[in-house]
């Protein structure tokens, strides 16, 4: 209300005059107080019904505490969404090092494509997943009795719609004996349980289809050899090994024997990897216009997820979800609000650009703008400060005085370069300034130590003032985050094909400050 704000700020000077009321008002407009979030327990109950999800393996043995907490909570939710929709494919946008992707694949037997723009992240995810597979059986053995019971219950409780789909597709495969390509597809489904088939559904077709394949192998040996090898592109790189030519003399084998040996090798390796569906890290930059089918060649009905997708990537994840019919559900946790692009920040006319904020038509019509300082504030962690985490006042003070030095001594007001984590590597303020100037490619030789210390002494008495200012920013942070998250939720509410959408608090905000997920399911996935 206007009356409340007039009590917090002076009408003439617009200065803050009531800190206590400011804090109470900020709390009132925080997401936890507005009552717009759906409790995670309610979402899981609606998705699972009376069935119980897998609880066997915990990720804390191979991840730090924060990442373990995030992966464990989010993976259970994503698995519940996938089961509810009757699908097995997951697209992890901004997958990074693949923590969530690999756990979804190994723990929940989902086929996961992890897409990240960084080659180093993708390569790291490949290597990390390779090492993790070596130890996964040991992790699984600890919870095997529980997992067996849960998997059996999960199979029995699978949605009726999914059972009908599976039955219909299997009947078509059994009745269709005209095309060798269709038989190859059945074998691929046996090897890779990633297209919505249950193990029970495909097992009954295995004997008949393989017998038909051998009977016609002679007339189709060339085509079959090529198409069997194509299966290797579907499975993860380390899940299947090509049969080595050193094991036998291929020139002395007939084509039928070659095919049979290839099939045997593929089945052996696929059986070993069947305990966990493939996780495939891919490198690609995702935008709102990205065609997923160009990246994921076997794209099917899927869930799109993002764990701390940075800046505009979170907004683009929701846009892709709304636009692509194959994506039946989305679960997105954003971060790095300061990197969002804003349509009305610089008042630039650019009709073709897709902006990170605002997304919904309501805020667009209002011409709403946050600005970089507000978005930076939205990234702060009030809950951590509330439990005693110290605000890094000294490093903030160093950075503030450095800004003054750069403007007054070098005439620089904006730069594309960043100082980064220079404070932790510096032994003193002088050392900090010189390291920072080098990073900014500014000549520090014109600046004697005495001059640097003069600036330090000039502003030293204002350090407490800076600390108070940053505390006010931290108190206000949840209000700005509310605006960004509600903008994304309103965007989904504006879409015609969305059956349900909501904001859900997934994580403990002390462990993981960016703890809210935007979740949505399309109408056809809820039918």
UniProtKB/TrEMBL annotation:
Gene3D superfamilies: Vaccinia Virus protein VP39. SUPFAM superfamilies: S-adenosyl-L-methionine-dependent methyltransferases. It comes from the Eukaryota. Residues 66-343 form the Methyltransferase domain. InterPro entries: Methyltranfer_dom, METTL25, SAM-dependent_MTases_sf. This is MET25 protein. It comes from Onychorhynchus coronatus.
